[in-house]
Amino acid sequence: MRQFATKAVLLVLCACLAPPLHARSFFKGNFERPADIPASDGEAARFLTQATFGPTQADIDKVRTIGVSAWIDQQMLLPATRVLPYMLGLENVRRNHNRRMDRHLHSFMVAPDQLRQRMAFALSQIFVISSQHPGLINDNGAQQSGAYWDMLADAAFDSYAPLLQNVTYHVTMGKYLSHFRNRKAGPGHEPDENYAREIMQLFSVGLKELNIDGSPVLDTAGRPIPTYSQDAITDLAKVFTGFTFGNAGADINSGSFTYFGPMKCLEAEHDKTAKTVIGNSVLPAGRTCPEEVRRVVNLLSAHANTAPFIARRLIQRFTTSNPSRAYVRRVAEKFRDNGDGEYGDLGAVVRQILIDPEARQFPPPATFGKVREPLLQVTAILRAWPFQVPGVDANGSLPMAHNSVPVTQVPLSAPSVFNFYEPDHQPPGTLQAAGLYAPELQPIDEATIYDIANGMAHYGFSNYFGSGDTGAVRPYIRLDTLGALPDAQLIEDVNRRMLYGTMSPGMRAILAEMLPRLASGRERARSAILLTALSPEFAVQR
């Protein structure tokens, strides 16, 4: 298995690092807006690969019946599948991060609000918190993290500014970036600057001034212009003082660690001095904490950088690592005006990302796409086929066998505030030389690919846990019907369901040679799915 996985590593990296020689000329062309109803199952599956945790046959049929726009409309009306109520309903088991991951996996695989959950996943990689933080690693932190996810899911299609304010006040973010119990300056201490830095660098405006298409604004010497100074960070940190639990008393150190709602700000611990923040905007002395936070959120939201900055980040999470300037511009313009004069409409933004001509061109050009995130590989494999998931057990749990999931990407568990990977990561070699990005390759090496491959070989293909626990059920693909298909039909089903009709002749030939050698129908189906899942053609979402 290790030798097979090692070869898969080399194939994936070669495919990802192959130089897209005509990328620049390709993006200079014009696009014709395609028909709203996909012309084939493969085209519908590709759209659903971008918009969900993987296409199912039922969703393919639906998109081909009602069209892309109507499908998006229906998705945006669905309420969020929530995490915290599930965790609070558990009995006789710990309400920890394992239970939270069970809920996430179950939602990603079967919840109806696929686009909302996918948007929450994208937002969680911009407004990053992590269960690896010492203040969030315990059971209370797990439930606070669940509440944080629910906040992102609820706001998935709402306005950016209220979301940024809710992120600022959320106790989970307060703990993670240390403005929770952040006190005004006093003998021996100054306000913590973590949140002040990251709300600008990662959550809104970025480090350099941007044009509407995401290109850097240059000074007269041709150099990028910094968006803000260290002095702006220092003064902004004073805004985020006085925060504590929403159920705290007059003492900033009071309150219950089982509190999951927004923080409140104690005016006695809030810095009331005048402050000069981003864009040399002055906050007069004597303002209350809510007044200052609201003013800062509005300044950051309205900043010229925010629309292109957020647009590019979200495009990278849904469709392509290297969007053209024109693509970024179209999405950023939708951020600035949704068509009804509303600013920061995230629903309009994600709709533009998904219906944009650059995203909908089919077949996709070789220059378009992104490496699939590890979690999305796993969910897409199961959702592509008839599969079974466990029901709720006697304790209220959803036993999704999270510990055996072959991913290096547990939601809300990134190794740093910079997410699992940075948006501008360029692997050394041909991609870097071409000025292109592959964020998802940053944490990937031969060891992690082997772990993912080994996990895929087991997860989803059996309902047996091991260790004698034969009564437990975990997610698995129903292989019997698939294994009864003739070789040619099985290959075509794999092509349509997993590669949206873009399987190369070489891949088809490999499967056609392998399948007749396998006697068992289940083994034929399992091998066809697994080999395709480990191929570069599946690893790179086009």
3D shape: globular
Compute the gyration radius: what is it? 24 Å
β-strand number: 8
Q: Helicity level, as a percent range?
A: 40-55%
N-C termini distance: 27 Å
The percent range for strand residues is under 5%
The count of helical stretches stands at 26
Work out the oligomeric state of the chains in this entry. single chain
Poorly predicted runs are: 1-31, 464-471
How is the largest sheet built, in terms of strand order? 1-2
What does the average pLDDT come to? Answer: 90
SS-based structural class?
mainly alpha
Largest sheet: 2 strands, antiparallel
InterPro entries: DUF1800
Keywords: Signal
What does this protein structure show overall?
With 542 residues, this protein is mainly alpha-helical. Among the domains are: 160-304, no CATH class; 451-541, no CATH class. Helix content is 47%, strand content 3%. It has 26 helices and 8 strands. The strands form 4 sheets. Strands 1-2 form a two-stranded antiparallel sheet. The chain is globular. 49% of the residues are buried.
